[in-house]
Amino acid sequence: MKKIAKYLLIALCGASVWSCDLATTSPSVVDGEFVFGGIETGRTAILAAYNQLINDYNNGYVPNFTNIGSDIERCSVGNITDLVGGAQLYLEPYDEARFNINFQKGNWDRFYSIIFKCNSIIENIENNPDIESIKSSAPNDLSDLLGQAYCLRASVYYDMTMYYGDVIYIKAAREESKELRSRFAILEDELENLIAVEPLMYQIGSNGHLSDQMTRNFCEGLIGRICFALAGYQTRRTDLGADFYVDKDGKPISFEDWGSDSEKNAAYGRRSDWKTFYAKALPYLKKAVEQPGEAILTTVDPRTDKARTYGNPFQYYFQQINEEYKAPETIYEVTMKEVGGGSRIAYNFGRGSNGASPGLPPKANAQICTFPEVYYGEFDPQDMRRDVSMSVTGSSGTGVEVLYNFNLTNRLTLGVGLNKYDPNRVETPDLRQLNSGVSYIHMRQADIILMLAEAYAQTGDEGSAKAELKKVHDRAFPDDIQDAKFNELLASQPTLVDAILKERQLEFQGENLRRWDLVRSGKLPQIAYEFRKKLVDHMAEMKANGYATFDNGNEFPAYVWTKLVDAKKEYGYRLTTQTPAGKEDDPVLYPGWRGQHDDWQKAKDYQQQSRGNTVKAVPCEDYTNLAIKGLFKHIEPGSAEAKALEADGYKQTDWGVLMYTKGGKVDADQEAEWSTKFLGGYTDADYAAKKAPIYLIPMETTVCVTTGLKNGYGFKNPS
Question: Measured between alpha carbons, how far is residue 238 from residues 182, 255, 267 in Å?
Answer without folding.
Answer: 12, 12, 7
